[in-house]
Amino acid sequence: MNKTELVGWVSSIILVLTIGKQIYKQWHEDSSENVSKWLFIGQMAASTGFSIYSWLVGNWVFVVTNLVMLLSGLCGLGIVLHHRRRESPKGKGPQTKGKLKAKRA
Question: Which of 57, 60, 61, 64 could form a disulfide with 8 if both were Cys (CB 3.0 to 4.6 A apart)?
Answer without folding.
Answer: 61
